[in-house]
Amino acid sequence: MSVETLYIGSDAVGALVRYTRDQGLRHFILVVDDRTWSALGEAAYAALTTDGADVRLARLAGEEVVADGERILELLLFSDSEPRTYIVVGSGTLTDLTRFVSYKLGRPFISLPTAPSVDAYTSSNAPIVVDRFKRTLEAQEPIAVFADLDVLCAAPPAMIASGVGDILGKYVSLADWRLGALLLGEAIDEDVVKAMYATLYSVADRVEAIGRGEPAAVAALMQALLNSGSAMARWVNSRPASGSEHHLSHFWEMLLLQEGRPAILHGAKVGVGTVLMARAYARLRSISRDNALARLARTAGRDAEEIRTLIYAGYGPLAEQVLADWVPVFPILGELWSQLQERLAEHWDEVQAVAADVPPPEVIVAQLQAAGAPTEPAQLGLTVLETDDALRYAHFMRDRFTVRWVERALGFQ
User: Fold this and answer.
1) I want to staple 176 with a disulfide (CB 3.0 to 4.6 A). Which of 197, 234, 241, 243 is the partner?
2) pLDDT digit string (tens) for 217-237?
3) Burial of 204 (0-12, 13-18, 19+ CB in 10 A)
């Protein structure tokens, strides 16, 4: 399936009713939580039932809804023998739950975002917590998205700022992808890259207006988030929109889950991760070719046993789940490491050119601050040790090439 209709405006519920009537959709499961019910869910329920639709309400209770196995089961229990279309009213977590459950049941879903906070609304993958480990699982795109601009502008400022953090993260994720293509021959789609940069700049150029809550700017942010999700769906995984900055976010998220601490908005973590990785790219820009060659000559290769040791040190009881992604890589690790060092030496000027497309960290800090987003781990309640651990271990979470592997090849830890 793919997204048939994208609507951003002041009559999202009306547009939803007209769309479902035109499409002959009459049976629904409406997914909400306590917050999104009052934000838009109640209005959607009333409008659909007034229009004669059969709506089964799936209201997920609780202060904090997590996209995990328990909530998946809870949502599954609302299904019945009627072939219903799912409608989810909410942001990232509810949308991920719904896209996964509807996909497994072979039913379409429609998204009604309540905040411009994440770029996963139109993605085809669902980040789900399985045994306290964040996994990206195959799911599906919505068939339509109806975003009510008044509701988006009324969202908590922290959630709007979270959306900005998620989009500004593309400075790093796109650079990481380009490095993977340059240094390891990873597949890349230049049309997707070009579209993602346009999406990124559409937000970066409006951060002050977004921070002020101007409707046109909030609409542009929402459109950027939808475009980013569509790019991930087009590429069939999250590579165009997720790199080392997202690895830091996922590492911190799993840490908080393990310790039973309150969740932190995804985009807030990504924004802080973007600042930290922009500093890594700044370090690359500061290294001359001669210095880089000298560092490469002093840096030993990486073997499977060393990586196993680091993963056990960084992930503890979750280490086996992390290692599962690395088992296929271990037999060719030495070859990949040699190739990386050789191509770094051969293509240092191109590496520097990629790094130059990541703005200096102080520029990204100013953009995040203009939108009201945090810029440092301490603002998220994270300690220096938790920050250092994320920098040391987060890049092992996926077998995905990022700037952190370049740093390791150059002898930075």
Assistant:
1) 243
2) 999 999 999 999 999 988 988
3) buried
